[in-house]
Amino acid sequence: MKKKLDRRKAIKNMILGAGAIPLLSNSAYGFRDTYDAKNTIAAKNYGNSDIKKPITAITLGAGSRGNVYGNYGAQFSNELDIVGVAEPIPIRNERYAMKHNIPDENRFVTWEHVFQKPKFADAVIITTPDDLHYAPCMKALEMGYDVLLEKPIAPTEQECRNILALAKKTNRIVAVCHVLRYAPYFIKLKEMIDSGTVGELISIQHLEPIQHIHMSHSYVRGNWHNSKKTTPIILAKSCHDLDILRWMIGKKCKSISAFGSVKWFKESNAPVGSTNRCTDGCAVESICPYSALKIYHRDRDYTYVFDFPEDESTHSDFILEQLKTTNYGRCVYKMENDQPDHYVASMEFENDITVNFSMEAFTSYHGRRTRIMGSHGDIVGDMNQFIHTDFLSNKVTKWDVSVENVDNYSGHGGGDWALVSDWIKAVKAQDSSLLTSTIDASIESHIMGFMAEKSRETKQTVSINL
């Protein structure tokens, strides 16, 4: 019998057998251990102290995103006053109304009810489900409201174009929540590209790691598991990325070629002994990384989707009940999901700039990764830091990102509240130029997403006509 080979020796032999190729270090990924210079990117403080009288707004949809944007008003009442809410889930409606002191006459069950009343605010914040963005946005514009519109703009290209046309016709402000444009990290990257720091821009590689549990939560079990009832994942999740690429490059995308599928989260991969629900005595629940009992009950992760009762002592039983009655307790291999769990797109922009984008479910981490390659330098970043190398001098500069209160208040690298801050100023001054994510600017990346889906489905390179 052969002697069992020591793992350390086996790895060494593999390296020697490959021509003594060294193990990858940080530098192989673009990061280094020492730097010629270090800088910090700090977000500006939230709040516009010069604004004395707030704009008034009605929130349509008091879920997670409705609370993110509404919380800005709770913190900066001199800028934003939430005076109305539409929300069909009673406990959400009640809690939102209490937080913002909304009178009963301005509490509504659905968005349609809001517009049965004469205009009673400056603006509307639309954070309804994806398939309920179009109709309320069109109605709001017809009635003279300015709009803060959660992405995606609408489920179809024609609906996106209709909103753009009506916004122009009514001369109203529509800010799309492409919040990465307001994150200090991406603002600095764009500044460095525009200033010629890397020379002439040649190519970009951009990765969005969804993270495996996040994928199972949102796009297998969650609200966006069915693309036909909501929007394709390239828009539901990655329109942020298409938008930030278009914004940083500053040129139009000419063509796109995309590939992707549901490879893992399907019934053919269901383990032997699995049940329809993780609570049904599944034989493999304890060894499944996607176990709903592990994620929601034991680890208490992603529980923001549950509307917990006030009594904390009942929360454990409440979660178990949710897992027995909602999609969040179902087996990830036995859902009606159709969203690709891996997605790649290659794009050609004007001036022969190329981009490779990859959206991946099966990662252990979050946070976009970006490589920018120019004629005189390159940049490698992960939203926490980026490294710039100058080809001529070989000088390496590290930039660290410092954003206060991201976890408690403003996600997306500080972009959430920075967007709200600029939107308030734009509405106050009736000047859309104070925004970088107007409907005019944001629609291009949506069309890129629609064309990516067309390419993925037809397996052809698709030209983009804007």
Biggest beta-sheet profile: 10 strands, mixed
What fraction of the residues are assigned to beta strands by DSSP?
Answer: 15-25%
Task: Report the mean per-residue pLDDT as an integer.
Answer: 90
Which residue ranges are poorly predicted, with pLDDT under 50 across at least 5 consecutive positions? Answer: 1-25
Distance between the termini: 68 Å
Helix content: 25-40%
Placed side by side, the strands forming the largest sheet appear as 1-15-14-13-12-8-11-10-9-16
Counted by DSSP, the helix tally is 14
Listing every helix as H and every strand as E from the N terminus to the C terminus, the arrangement reads HEEHEHEHEHEHEHEHHHEHHEEEEEEHHE
Computed Rg = 24 Å
The structural class is: alpha/beta
The gross shape turns out to be: globular
Count of individual beta strands: 16
InterPro entries: Gfo/Idh/MocA-like_OxRdtase_C (IPR004104), Gfo/Idh/MocA-like_OxRdtase_N (IPR000683), Gfo/Idh/MocA_Oxidoreductases (IPR051450), NAD(P)-bd_dom_sf (IPR036291)
Organism: Flavivirga rizhaonensis
Protein name: Gfo/Idh/MocA family oxidoreductase
GO molecular function, one term: nucleotide binding
Describe the structure.
By secondary structure, this protein is an alpha/beta fold. The chain has a domain of 63 residues. Helices cover 32% and strands 20% of the residues. The protein has 14 helices and 16 strands. A 10-stranded mixed β-sheet has the order 1-15-14-13-12-8-11-10-9-16. A 6-stranded parallel β-sheet has the order 4-3-2-5-6-7, sandwiched between helices. Strand 6, helix 6 and strand 7 form a beta-alpha-beta unit. The radius of gyration is 24 Å and the shape is globular. One of its GO terms (molecular function) is nucleotide binding. InterPro entries: Gfo/Idh/MocA-like_OxRdtase_C, Gfo/Idh/MocA-like_OxRdtase_N, Gfo/Idh/MocA_Oxidoreductases, NAD(P)-bd_dom_sf. It comes from Flavivirga rizhaonensis. This is Gfo/Idh/MocA family oxidoreductase. Pfam families: GFO_IDH_MocA, GFO_IDH_MocA_C.
